[in-house]
Amino acid sequence: MSTAVLESYPTAEFDIPSDISAEFGAREEGNHAVFTIGQKTFRLDKEKARARMAGKRVINGERSAELNVLPLKYHEAYRIYKQMKANHWEPDVIDMTKDCNQWNSDALSPKERWIVEMGVGYFSAAEGIVGDSVLHVIEDNLTAAELKHASLRQIAEESIHMDSLLHIIGSLNIDIDEVTAKFQDIPSIRKKNAFITRHMPELKRGMDLTQTVDKQKFAKAIFGITQVMEGTQFYALFAMILSIHRQNKMTGIGQMFQYTLRDESNHIALGRYLLEQLVKENPDIWTPEFREELVAFMAEGVELEKEFVRDCLPEDAVGMSLGEFLSYVDYNADRRLASLGLPTLSNVKENPFLWLDEVIFLKKEKNFFETRVTEYQTSGSVQNASEDDLI
Ligand SMILES: [Fe+2]
Ligand SMILES: [Fe+2]
After folding, report:
1. Ion ligand 2 nearby residues (CB, 5 A)
2. Domain boundaries, the chain
3. How many angstroms is it from 114 CA to the middle of ligand 1?
4. FRET partner for 377 with CA separation of 20 to 30 A, picked from 7, 117, 213, 389?
5. Strand pairing of 27-29 and 32-37?
6. Where is average pLDDT lowest: 33-47, 229-243, 328-342, 360-374?
7. Ligand nearest the Cα atom of residue 269
8. In the CATH scheme, what is the homologous superfamily, with its name and number, of domain 75-389?
9. Residue 265 CA: which ligand is closest?
């Protein structure tokens, strides 16, 4: 994301292209704009396409029940959608035999068992909170089809994540009510969830997005869900679970968390892009006071997250240092803030877990649906998907 875009208060005007060829990369044939993407050719009525393009906005644009993404205006959202689709995975085909054996033996230390329980307990609620908030607060207010399309894909992925937790709970034969009850009583989890959902009931009742104050509430909700919660408050526990996975323990769970984390990186990127485009079209949102409000919100999220990390790992364990996990919280918070052109909060400039990026983005050529093993992407494409294969 270009931070310069946010900082320069760009104009909200959108110019209707005078040259449709330049706009669509299309050739003109009479009344049609004809363009080729990948193996496919699309013919659009020139005037209708132009009108649809002119009506596209992040919010307050033309709504269309057909969700026709053409002609594309928000190319990056469509690229992220394609990337999300390429990363598709299915939890219930991941083999949990080894996890089950380890869970029912003394393979795990008490600290490691606690971290796995925290992982299941926290994410069982958190994935639902994200899915519900993206559906009712974010997607519902977006008006451009390709933005809704990407947002709907995110909601579907949150369902996959919830499903993966059920797969874990069912495979390990954990009592789901016991897990839920146990984690409802942990103050750091309660506080984290309450902090994120604080304004959701009000936002779900509806916003007047012609008003700056409500546009700011909407922007803050996107920031809260995608940058604070998914982008900062998910990562330390993910890293703890993957540290256990790295020691060849609970590898089925580790694999699912690996895929989940890769999905989350796309959700964070989508949230950042939505914010960028929203502010570009509505520069009245991005006041100095509002930017301070976002930074303060992140700072509160960081404090709550550190309290939670201390609950997960009260002291160092094999291969896990509490200090590094706390630094990781600062590191993630700062990179989310910096990516939006906002001031950072800490002096942590280095990622303490470089190995984690390698784990998440480890690439293998195998296709999951043929082999049902380990890393995969459905299309076999391991780089960013391109809108060139628009279907
Ligand atoms: Fe998720
Ligand atoms: Fe997510």
Report:
1. 230, 264, 267
2. 3-54, 75-389
3. 21
4. 117
5. antiparallel
6. 360-374
7. 2
8. Ribonucleotide Reductase, subunit A (1.10.620.20)
9. 2
